[in-house]
């Protein structure tokens, strides 16, 4: 019957105690003025009228408030707003018919002092219209405040998502421009130039593509799976050029062959930018990659998810963790949809599954 503060904020959009304290007397006074307009009544009759209006208004406010809470609990989605409002209007109209009919038919005729206070002189239709107006004012208060709170919440969530994306892109950029990555990449390039000049040119092009995509995707919440796979292909080329047969990448999916990248079955599949690259990078960073212990990373593309699995051979026990990068990806998925990234660790393997987001247009997910 009585809601906690958390429940009031959840279903009503705000803690409505002050709205009740201020709103009920205000609407009661308004109703009293309407009912006694044009009548000359003694102060005692005006007092009775005010008390009855206060009871009337409190009853309607409480019942409408209960209806608002019930309907928002059962129809919480934005696309259900129209249905919820229609049900609420029907509920309020039913309340007015039942309450006014009962009071005017059974209660007021038995209380003579109410007639002296102005009650019973107005028509039932007039009283019902006034009561319905009070109900509509109560509903308008709750719906407008709730709409504003939802709008403010969506704005804050969008700002939070933007900050999270910027943090993620900066983290990826820091990892790629750190001295170790640059040193290893340049060292690999120096070794490749005399042995295979065409491959050295390709290596340089792929290295520049890695940085170009970081800058290109920094303002986007989602990119197509095709774009993500192409970005990952450049990064994998750099790593396999460096580690050679010590690093083995296995792709699995529709029509995929080992060491080949499958084409996504659906073109409306989207993913958090550079999330696959970050997961593959973490696998290489935290595991031994050597001739004696080669690292195998399997990337499986399915209609709903992309799963990255590597054999577990950690450099140290402390590194078998879900680091900042994966926590960031998890948070970004929470902000863009209701499906989350999953991580499964077994004694022999480390598996990360990223859900694919289905949207009609990528433009809807590009932050300004």
TrEMBL record:
Pfam families: His_kinase
InterPro entries, A to Z: Bact_2-comp_sensor_kinase (IPR050640), Sig_transdc_His_kin_internal (IPR010559)
Residue span(s) of domain Signal transduction histidine kinase internal region: 168-247
Signal peptide region: none
Protein keywords: Kinase, Membrane, Transferase, Transmembrane, Transmembrane helix
Presence of the UniProt keyword Transmembrane in the record: yes
GO cellular component: membrane
Residue stretches spanning the membrane: 18-38, 44-63, 84-103, 123-142
GO molecular function: phosphorelay sensor kinase activity
Keyword Transferase: yes
Official protein name in the record: Histidine kinase
């Amino acid at each position: 019957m009585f809601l906690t503060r958390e429940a009031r904020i959840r279903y009503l959009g705000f803690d409505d105690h002050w709205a009740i304290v201020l709103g009920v007397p205000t609407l009661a006074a308004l109703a009293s003025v309407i009912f006694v307009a044009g009548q000359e009544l003694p102060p005692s009759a005006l007092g009775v009228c005010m008390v009855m209006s206060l009871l009337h208004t409190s009853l309607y406010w409480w019942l409408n408030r209960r209806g608002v809470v019930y309907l928002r609990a059962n129809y919480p989605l934005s696309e259900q707003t129209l249905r919820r409002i229609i049900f609420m209007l029907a509920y309020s109209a039913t309340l007015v018919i039942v309450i006014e009919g009962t009071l005017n038919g059974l209660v007021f005729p038995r209380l003579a002092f109410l007639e002296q206070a102005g009650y019973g002189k107005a028509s039932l239709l007039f009283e019902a219209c006034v009561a319905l107006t009070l109900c509509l004012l109560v509903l308008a208060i709750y719906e407008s405040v709730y709409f504003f709170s939802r709008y403010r919440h969506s704005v804050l969530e969008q700002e939070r998502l933007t900050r999270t994306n910027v943090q993620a892109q900066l983290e990826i950029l820091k990892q790629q421009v750190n001295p170790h990555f640059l040193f290893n990449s340049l060292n690999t390039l120096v070794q490749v130039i005399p042995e295979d000049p065409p491959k050295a040119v390709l290596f340089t092009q792929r290295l520049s593509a890695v940085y170009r995509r970081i800058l290109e995707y920094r303002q986007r919440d989602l990119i197509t799976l095709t774009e993500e796979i192409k970005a990952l292909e450049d990064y994998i080329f750099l790593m396999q050029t460096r580690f050679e047969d010590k690093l083995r990448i296995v792709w699995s999916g529709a029509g995929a062959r080992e060491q080949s990248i499958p084409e996504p079955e659906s073109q409306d599949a989207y993913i958090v930018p550079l999330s696959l690259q970050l997961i593959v990078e973490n696998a290489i960073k935290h595991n031994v990659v050597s001739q004696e212990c080669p690292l195998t990373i399997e990337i499986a593309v399915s209609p709903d998810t992309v799963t990255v699995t590597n054999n577990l051979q950690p450099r140290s026990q402390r590194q078998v963790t879900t680091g900042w990068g994966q926590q960031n990806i998890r948070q970004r998925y929470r902000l863009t949809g209701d499906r989350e990234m999953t991580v499964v660790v077994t004694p022999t393997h480390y598996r990360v599954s990223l859900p694919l987001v289905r949207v009609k247009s990528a433009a809807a997910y590009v932050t300004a």
